[in-house]
Amino acid sequence: MAEAVGRIRQANYVPKRWLVTSLVLLVIFAIFPFVAGEFQTNLMAKLLLFGTLGVSLDLVWGFTGILSFAHGVFFTLGGYAMAYYLKLNLSATANNYGGTLPDFMVWNGLKELPWFIAPLQFFPVAVIAMVVLPAGFAYLIGSFIFRSKVSGVYITVITLAISSALTTFFVSQQAYTGGTNGITDVSKLSLFGLTVPPIGIYFIILVFAASVMAGSWWLTQSNFGLILRSIKENEQRISYLGYDVANFKIFIWTLSAGIAGIAGGLFVPLNKFISPVYLGVAFGTQIVIWVAVGGRGTLFGPILAAILLGQIQNSVDRVTQDWQLIVGVLLVIVVLFLPDGLISLLPKKFLSKKSNQLTRTE
Asked: How far is Cα 92 from Cα 101, in angstroms, rounded to an integer?
């Protein structure tokens, strides 16, 4: 992947309209928890995480043309790494059995903490694991897929199979994963000996989302991003120009998995649980919907769609349980009448122009 990293060059400038718009939105999100209630603050934090997860998929689908249903897998792996840390640091008095061994392990007859889980009781190890586990897993399967010249719909089928297989595996390993219920009743997140309140978690998530957006914009506006878009348009021609296409795909695939893993890790202290349901095809499809509805290759689109659809779901849920039908109708409308997603409703001057010519840098 050294070649891929070497091709990254910073964009020449940040368009003033984008900079001003981004700063205004950042201020709005920063003020939000002080004017909204606790429920809406927690909901917005979750939707920001889901939107950032959508951005990670947008990097591989919207910019590189790789449709994946496995980003829920990367999200969940990062979530389990953090969930183990929070569960193992639950006080003995708060534990159902008054000991340090997690309750689901006691239920399944384990007498001591498994050696491969024990290191996760330390915060630095858990933080590293929530990035390395999903990124490392993505690198392994990405190396196999992309160096085997697998492309198109076959990649999508493989990601569906991975999602289904890991869901079954995690459910079956109840003694180690909590089975269908997953890991629940975790401790609150503490940093430097201080418990992080809900509003603190919100701002951690906001900083994470803003950092991912800024980093993704910088990456996609560089020569590296131009190569990614060129791979999406005509992979064979880029290969003829001397680029190792597999290296670029593996790099962006691994990077996006790491982002998804961090999102999963932050999801756990916010929602106090993680379960195999987020490994499933249903959640993976939901991420794809956020990107499709928001607009592929736009970065901001997936966050817009995640927030909008999440708020719609929250509102419709109070009236009917058939919120998925409403979301499905909205998806059909967007696909038929807004093929470029909701972001295409913005004035043309806000949409960045894509270069059609690949310029090589030495």
From this structure: 9
One-letter amino acid for residue 76 of the chain: T
pLDDT tens by residue, 283-327:
999 999 999 999 999 999 999 999 998 988 888 777 666 667 777
Longest dimension (CA), the chain: 65
**Identity of the amino acid at 83:** A
Q: How far is CA 105 from the centre of its chain?
A: 28
Q: What average pLDDT does this structure show over 209-222? A: 93
Per-residue pLDDT tens for 151-170? 788 999 999 999 999 999 99
Helix, strand, or coil (residue 1): coil
Determine contact, residues 108/173, Cβ cutoff 8 Å. Answer: no
Q: Is residue 80 a contact partner of residue 276, using CB atoms and an 8 Å limit?
A: no
Q: In sequence order, what are the residues at sequence separation of 6 or more whose Cβ sits closer than 8 angstroms to the Cβ of residue 147?
A: 246, 250
Angle at which helix 198-220 crosses helix 38-61, to 10 degrees, equals 20
Ramachandran bin of 52, using left for φ above 0, alpha for ψ from -120 to 50, beta for the remaining angles: alpha
d(CA 19, CA 163): 38
Give start and end residues of each alpha helix (H) in 62-122. Answer: 71-88, 103-107
Q: How far apart are CA 209 and CA 213, in angstroms?
A: 6
